[in-house]
Specification:
This protein is an alpha/beta fold and 416 residues long. It is built from 18 helices and 13 strands.
Length: 416
């Protein structure tokens, strides 16, 4: 563990300092995960405007965009103009006192700014440097701009998402960005472990397209195994039946029968032992082969009762099933609340706000929402003076030159 980092608490990563030059979603999501585990995150933003998601509204919570609030908890905000040599030099100095750096510039940009891995590693050979980009640092597409929706289209997920007889659909959240952030976080932790043995840092290259390819998982493997292009199944599963949504007397029911034992219990629970006795449906292979016949029969069956009635029957038989929640229903669900997946925290200007909580629950080093997302530039003075030893006179000169602002006022409605 680094001796540079000022502990952010008692989390598993307390003592690690992350210099986050990234913006929008993939990089900030990565650093947010690390922050939940106790790492200190110094978020570098552009003076005056900050991370682009600060302007991504509506919706707004007073002056802050909900989008920015969603991925920037537990961080400190420093404003630096990286187009100015003094701003670049301050970042180099911060990198020399950090364990990890995350950036999502277009490939080659960091190097041109004097902030590339090879340049920073000369002064800090233990630096773990993670680059996140649309297509990676190599390959014929490296210079293309990469955005989540485009990568979903290019990366195959839209071809298997949506109704079987309709047009391709993207996933309703920016799942490529989020999965790239998660891949980056796990890679960074692997590099931290490697450094404990070697003392050396390294460069990590994470691409949105690679992330999309990886989380095609079994769908991609189905093609590699058979040569048959995957189809869209709507809410159904390509390899398991019955595993989809069904209309009920008053709504929809999601059913997931994952193996033959569950299917036998399911048939008994819903009063249709004949669907187990039928040799066509005794194995998952048979149920997939005769999908249309079985699903049509189940559609007629589920239409006879309400969703609540079916849930009572199915859950009593330990058959995985659920109503289709909207987001308000989900976030007030007693299980979600019991797991502290919605947490309240005090914001510097907004008062108490609700945020989504950390996923992993640790027995000894809890992941925590320690602080709300920062206002723009809120920590500039403290970071530059405490970590770099900048004097008040130097800070005033940086501000006069437009290199930084000690604290930025949030953009007004007109400025947005």
């Amino acid at each position: 563990m680094s001796q540079r980092g000022k502990s952010a608490g008692d989390g598993a990563l307390a003592g690690l300092r992350v210099l986050d030059l990234s913006r929008i979603l993939a990089g900030p999501y990565c650093s947010m995960v690390l922050s939940d585990y106790g790492a200190e995150i110094i978020k570098v933003e552009r003076p005056g405007t900050g991370d682009g998601t600060r302007q991504w509204g509506p919706p707004w919570v007073d002056t802050e965009s909900a989008y920015f609030l969603s991925v920037n908890r537990n961080k400190k905000s420093v404003t630096l103009d990286l187009k100015q040599p003094v701003g670049q030099e301050l970042v180099r100095r911060l990198a020399g006192r950090s364990d990890i750096l995350i950036e999502n510039f277009k490939p080659g940009t960091a190097q041109r700014l004097g902030l590339g891995y090879s340049q920073l590693a000369r002064d800090n050979p233990g630096l773990i440097y993670c680059s996140i980009s649309g297509y990676g640092q190599t390959g014929p597409y490296r210079d293309r701009p990469g955005y989540d929706s485009v990568i979903q289209a290019q990366g195959g997920i839209m071809s298997v998402t949506g109704p079987s007889d309709g047009e391709p659909h993207k996933v309703g959240v920016a799942i490529v960005d989020i999965s790239a952030g998660l891949f980056a976080a796990t890679a960074i932790l692997a590099a931290v472990h490697s450094r404990t043995k070697t003392g050396a840092g390294q460069h990590i290259d994470v691409a949105l397209l690679d992330s999309q390819v990886a989380w095609l998982a079994n769908v991609a493997q189905n093609y590699l195994a058979t040569g048959d292009p995957p189809l869209r199944y709507g809410n159904a599963h390509p390899n398991i039946v019955p595993y989809e949504t069904f209309p009920t007397a008053d709504g929809q029911l999601a059913l997931a029968v994952g193996n033959d034992g569950q299917y036998e219990r399911f048939c008994q629970a819903v009063g249709r032992p004949d669907l187990w006795a039928d040799e066509r449906f005794r194995t998952n292979h048979g149920r997939v082969t005769h999908r249309r016949v079985l699903v049509a029969e189940l559609c007629r069956l589920f239409a006879k009762k309400t969703t609540a009635q079916w849930l009572e029957i199915l859950l009593a038989a330990t058959i995985p099933a659920s109503a289709i929640n909207d987001v308000p229903s989900l976030l007030t669900d007693p299980q979600v609340r019991a797991r502290e997946m919605v947490q309240s925290v005090d914001h510097a200007t907004l008062g108490k706000i609700d945020l989504i909580g950390p996923v992993a629950k640790f027995s000894a080093t809890p992941a925590k929402v320690r602080s709300a997302p920062p206002t723009l530039g809120a920590d500039t003075q403290a970071i530059l003076s405490e970590i770099l030893g900048c004097t008040r006179e130097e800070l005033e000169e940086f501000e006069r030159q437009g290199v930084t602002r000690i604290a930025d006022d949030p953009p007004t409605g007109e400025e947005r």
